Amino acid sequence: YRVAPVAIGQAVAESVRALYHLEPAATVPNGIEVERFQAPDGTRQRLRHALGLPDDAPVFIVVGRLNVQKNHALLLRAFAEVPDHAHLVIVGDGDLRDDLTAQAAPMADRVHFLGIRKDVPDLLAAADAFVLASDWEGNPLVVMEAMSAGLPVIATAVGCVPELVVDGAGTLVDKGDVHGLSEAMSALARTPGLATEQGTVALDHAR
């Protein structure tokens, strides 16, 4: 049998060439159903009340496995420098949960570990911005989902993430840049309306 690789984004195509010395037969970017992430009116308030989040607090959310790739430890270090009226919601589970919970203990009143959830579209609606501190990615569906929910994205510029997060739809920082992540989150936390403005650009691009 002969296998022909198909890349899911330009950065993945470059990786196939560099790592396997093969030319992808095609590049077919990932895609999702944008409208699935348009939550009904009232979802934001309902979820915030259920999670114990203040109505007026800036809320950042990350969805993903709690493993080395996603580098939640870096994200928590960055979030420690964000104004303390902000909250961070972490959705997902994995081998590093105990370590990350211990790291977040000094911020336990504003860092929320939700584990595995089946209501991600609703949870995204309850947040103001999506954050991702990954050390590597392919073409992450979760970034598309966040943008489809109208959230700006603050992320490390790895894999195909720069192909998704266009100018005005969020902020990209270098891999491992704690200060950059912290500054980007702090800017949204301190500037009312900025998340909405960037989220509108993100949704337009997702569509």
Choose one word for the global shape.
globular
* SSE series: EHEHEHEHEHEHEHEHH
Q: Could you report the average pLDDT, rounded to the nearest whole number?
A: 96
Give the uncertain stretches in residue-range form: none
Overall structural class, as computed from helix and strand content, comes to alpha/beta
Neighbour order of strands in the largest sheet: 5-4-3-6-7-8
Relative strand content: 5-15%
* Annotation, overall tally of beta strands: 8
Radius of gyration: 17 Å
End-to-end Cα distance, whole Å, is 38 Å
Please count the helical segments.
9
Helix amount: 25-40%
Please give the largest β-sheet. 6 strands, parallel
Please describe what this structure looks like.
This protein is of the alpha/beta class and 207 residues long. Helix content is 39%, strand content 15%. The chain contains nine helices and eight strands. Strands 5-4-3-6-7-8 form a six-stranded parallel beta sheet, with helices on both faces. The N and C termini lie far apart (38 Å).
